[in-house]
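Please, structure for the following, as tokens.
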Amino acid sequence: MSYRILSYLAGREPKGGILVGEQIYDLTRSYPSVLAALQDWAKARRELSALAKKSAGKKGLPLKRAKLLAPILYPGNIYCAGANYTDHVAEMERAQGRTPGPNMKQLGEKPWHFVKSSRSSIVGPGAAVKLPAYSSAVDWEIELAAVIGRKAKDVPVERALECIAGYTIANDLSARDAMKRAKNPPASPFHYDWVSQKCFDGACPLGPWIVPAAEIPDPHSLGLKLWIDGELMQDSNTGKMIFDTAEQIAMLSSRVTLQPGDLILTGTPAGVGMGRGRFLKPGEKLKLWIERIGELEHAVA
């Protein structure tokens, strides 16, 4: 039985639930939150599947009446892949006046990630993200987000996808004009300001739900698109990743222990504002879509 895992507002309290068809069913009799289910994923995935079968056809909360929240309140660590789509790397090279050359994988490098804040960055469907006062160049980046479902340390590439509970959609919002410290030399390790660029309040819209990994057998063959006020900006496929999701998990787990509820944002394709010289403006509405997952909508204010 197909189902989605989500968080929603029940009165004034957040609750975890599963979506079957167009009806939401409470999962708090089994788990107090989505994060708790992820922390017991080996057992939880069987229980949620059984709940979906038992609930199908019964009256729940209609999806159209629900106020959805970010599916995980709140995730653990958020690891974000940098420069990980072939089309995006070429786009950024051109934007900086450079001729695209071999990518990092072709040069023998390993996947590279930065960290995004969790509680401050995460917002859910329908949120209006306040653009940071210090930036006039906030960019959009649709990303496939892998949700870790079991503790993982030194995982080989061949087993890495087994660590994923499911997938959701993320927008890695970026303040492009806050990425460098102008008075610090470019050769300095302190030249880049990752906190200001990537970790402002609301910098990671997430949702609308988590699709169990069993329903997405190949995460590297998914269409993904992003629109701003109806204008298509990004239109690509996860098959254009340079380092695939398994390679990213293997690399990260060789450095840190991945925990249930951690997120891995796997990179963004071409079509970002940096390549166009066009950035987000207050009042604009964004729609993000990934094949087999659905749509995430939010605004900026």
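The domain at 78-300 is CATH 3.90.850.10 (Fumarylacetoacetate hydrolase; domain 2). The chain has two domains: 4-69, 78-300.
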